[in-house]
Each structure stands twice: as structure tokens, then as C-alpha cells.
Amino acid sequence: MRAALLRRTVLTASAASLALLAGACGPDAGGSDTGGTAGAGPSAAASTPAAPPAKGKTDAELSALLVTQADLPDLTVTPVAADAAKAAAGAAAKLVSDVSECLPGLRAMVGAPIGTPTGTAVTTTLSKARPAYSGATEEEKELAALNVTQTEVSLYSYDGEGAREAFRSFERAGLACRQGFTPSGFEGLGLNLGYTQVKGSAKVAAGDESQSHLLVMETEGAAPGRMTLELVVVRRANTLAVFVGESPSTTAEQPKEVVAAQAGKLG
Fold first, then answer.
1. DSSP alpha helices (H): ranges in 152-223?
2. 226 assigned to some structural domain
3. Is the CA virtual torsion 261, 263, 266, 267 positive or negative?
4. Residue 132 is part of a domain; what is its CATH number?
5. 175 inside domain
6. CB burial class (10 A; 0-12, 13-18, 19+) of residue 158?
7. Which structural domain, as residue segments, surrounds residue 113?
8. pLDDT band, residue 222 (cuts 50/70/90)
9. What SS3 class is residue 172?
10. pLDDT (tens digit, 9 = 90+) per residue, 54-110?
């Protein structure tokens, strides 16, 4: 799944510096009415039984909500088999970080869930490369062909407050990991990652709440350099949508079109 493209990314990585927009969407502010009359009888809230905890969706229910080729005609959409998604979760068990709060970002990189979802569904999208300019050399044409972004779209549903808790874990990672951290455990995926930072990315408005981050990673070994991944997390009720965009050119574009289409299908 993600490992194949990341390996290609490492082989084409460069040491170019990155300048990106900062910012992330936080949770919507909420409020409540607290007015009342002294001496009044029991409030409606007190006399109404509490609603049962929300039940999470199944794999099949989430699969029906994933974006399809019809939703994104200008991109190539390829569903990910359920066994591949489970394999990613198994690979994530070996990932470690010297800053524990950074693990959600690492798990997202390999398509593994946060917490214990009741259902999972995954698909990938691939943008089309922009043609090289007229008169470009063969090398320039080859480089232009690398300017594509592959986005893995993962839907996770949870019982109760699981989706909110998973969303908050990404928020904590965005704060705790800005100073950088060192991941390990990617050797089995053919990667040798070094110093990594989480930075802010362009804000995205979607779902009940959303956030966006940029993962900037130093690659080591035979192909030293730097690569970046775009990470967008959207929560709608008790479902979490996680988008990870990456590119063999080493700098991915934020998958705004994909996020908008998927958020629309979540309601």
C-alpha cells in the first residue's frame, strides 16, 4: 500500500527546502444556554433519559461512504482491499518514536487506525501529472511526470466518543511534534527515516471539525534527502476521515478536491 510509493519517494528525494503555509483547523467552539427560573421544577434535561452512546459503523457501511471514481472523475480512484488495510495495522505495531505523542502521525503514514474503530474502509486517489512545458528536455519531462499526488483516504468509525478521542490525539501530535522527533520501525517497509517534524498546513473547512498538518521527513541511507506528506483529519459525528497525500517528487499537494468530495459523502 503506502510502502511502495514511499520507497519510490525515497529514491527521488532531494534536499530542497520547503516553505509552506501554516495553520490548522481546531474544533468548533460550542456553547449552551444556562438560563432558568429559581424554584422551577426539574429541567427537561434532568427528566429526559440520556441518549444511548453512538454506535460505530461496520466495514461494509463505511465502504459505501468512500469516494469513488464517479465522485472524482479527474483523478484515478483505486479501492484498497480489506486484508491490505489489516496488514498496515499490523505493521504499525512496530513503529516507535522518541516522542510518544507523535505516533498518530506515524500510524497515519502506513494507513493504520488510531484507537479501536468498529469499522474501516480505505481507498486511494492519484492526480494526473501536469504536462511539461513546450521544448522540455527528456529529463525535464521525466521530472514533470513525478509531480503527482497520491492520497490514501481512510475512514474509521467508533463507538461512543472514540472518534473525538482519536481526533484529539492528532491535535496533540500537531503541538508536541513541531519541535521534531525521530521515528523508527520503518525498516520492514524499506524505509530509513531520520529527523521528522510536524508543521502546520493550509486550513481545511470540512465535517464537524478538521485539522491539517505537514510531515517533513529527512531520509537517510542510500538516498538521503527530504520528503513531505500532507495530513488532513476530518471528523463527522463518530466517523473519522484521514487523508495522507504523498508524491514521488518529494513534495505533495494538499488533496483539497479529495477532502471536499469525501466530506460531502459523510454528510
1. 162-176
2. yes
3. negative
4. 3.40.1000
5. yes
6. buried
7. 2-25+56-266
8. low
9. helix
10. 899 999 999 999 999 999 999 999 999 888 877 777 777 788 999 999 999 988 988
- Are the CB atoms for 23 and 133 separated by under 8 Å? no
- Which positions ≥6 away from 100 have C-beta within 8 Å? none
Q: Residue 164 and residue 7: Cα distance in Å, rounded?
A: 32
Instruction: State the total domains in the chain.
Output: 1
Does a structural domain hold residue 44?
no
- All cell numbers assigned to 20: 509552506
Global confidence as pTM: 0.79
The separation between CA 189 and the C-alpha centre of its own chain, rounded to angstroms, equals 19
Residue 103 lies in a domain: yes
Q: Classify 155 as helix, strand or coil.
A: strand
* Residues sharing a CB contact under 8 Å with residue 5, sequence separation 6 or more, in sequence order: 150, 246, 248
Whether residue 233 contacts residue 167, with contact meaning beta carbons closer than 8 Å, is answered with yes
Query: What count of Cα atoms within 13 Å lies in the side-chain half-sphere of residue 4?
Result: 4
Residue 207: strand pairing partners: none
